[in-house]
Amino acid sequence: MNKLSGVFDLLKGAVKIISQNGKLMAITAAVYLILYSITFIINTSSTTPFIMDLTLKIFALISAHPGTPEYSAILIAIREDIGIFLGIETVYAVFSFLIAVFAQTTMIIIASSYYIGSKLSFKELIRKVSRTWTRPFVTLFYVQLLALGYMSFFFLPFVVPSLVLFDQPMILIAILLFLFILYFTFYLYLSVVWSLAVVVSVFEDTYGLSALGNARELVRGKRVDGILLNIFLNLVLVAIFMVGSKLSPAMPIVVGLIQVVSIGVTSLFQFMAYSVFYYQCKNNLNISRGSVYTQIAHAPVVDENLA
C-alpha cells in the first residue's frame, strides 16, 4: 500500500503542477499536439499510396515469372517504393523526435519553476527551453539507442522458439508469453532510469551517459515507485489502443489522430510525473546517503539556466 500511495503522490503532484501553471501548460500542449497531429496526417497521407502500390506490386511479382523483363521491372519498382517509403518515415521520425524533445523539455522546465517557487512568463520559458533543449536531446538519443539495443537483444529469443516449435502451437504460445512477460518486466525496470535521465538532463548541467549515471544513483530505493508509475502509464496506453482498435475500421484516420493526440498527452503527463519523481528521489537520497550523490549535495537544486 505504501508503494501505491507513492504512485498516487506522483500523479497528484503532476496534477498540482498542471493546475498551478495552466496557461503555459495549455500553450505547450496545444502547440505540441497541433504539430504532432499535422505531422501524423502528412505522414499517413504520404505513405498510404506507397503502401497500396507496394502491395499491388508484390502480388504482381508473385504471379510473374523470374528472369523475365516484367519480373525485373516490378522488382526495381518495388525497391524504389521501399526507398521512398523509408525516406518519408525517416523524416517523420526525426521531426517527431524533435517535437517531443522540445515539448518534454518545456514541461520539465515548467515543473522546475513550480518547485523553486518562481513564476515563468512565456518569454522566459522560451528562453530557458532554447538554452536547455540540447541536453535532453542528446540524452533521449542515447535512450533510443539503448531501447533499440534492448529490443535487438530479445529478438533471437523470440524468433528461435517460433522457428523450432511452429508445429507445437500450445507450447510455443506458452514460451512466447513467458518471454514477453520477462521482456516487458525488465523493460519497465530499465525505463525508470531512462525516463528519469531526461529529467536529470534538464534539471542539471549534464547529458547523455552522465545523465543516465546520475539517474541510476538517484533512483536507488525508489525504483519500485517508478516501475508502478510506468505500469500505470502503459495501462493508459493499452486502453487507448484497445478503444481505437474497436473504432478504427469505421474511421481509421480520425481514430488514428485521436490515438496520436491521446498518446501525446500521456507522454507530456509522463514527464510531468517524472519531474515530481526527480524531486522525491533527490530528497530520499539526501536523507539516506547524504553527499554520495555530488550533483545534489554541492550543486544548486536546478541548473542555473532554469533558475
Q: What count of domains describes the coordinates?
A: 1
Major sheet description? none
The radius of gyration computed from the alpha-carbon positions, rounded to a whole number of angstroms, is 23 Å
Overall geometry: globular
Q: Name the helix and strand elements from N-terminus to C-terminus, one letter apiece.
A: HHHHHHHHHHH
What ranges have pLDDT less than 50 throughout 5 or more consecutive residues? 291-301
Give the structural class.
Answer: mainly alpha
**Mean pLDDT rating:** 81
**How much beta, percentage-wise?**
under 5%
Q: How many helices does DSSP assign?
A: 11
Please give the share of residues in helix.
over 70%
Termini separation comes to: 36 Å
SS elements, strand count: 0
Descriptive account of the structure:
The chain has 307 residues and is mainly alpha-helical. The chain has one domain. It is built from 11 helices and no strands. It is globular and about 75 Å long. The two termini are 36 Å apart. About 4% of the residues have low confidence.
Please provide a brief summary of the model.
With 307 residues, this protein is an all-alpha fold. It is built from eleven helices and no strands.
List keywords for this structure.
single chain, 307 residues, 11 helices
Question: What topology emerges from the helices and strands here?
Answer:
Elements: H1 2-20, H2 22-63, H3 69-115, H4 122-132, H5 134-153, H6 155-164, H7 169-203, H8 208-218, H9 223-247, H10 252-289, H11 294-298
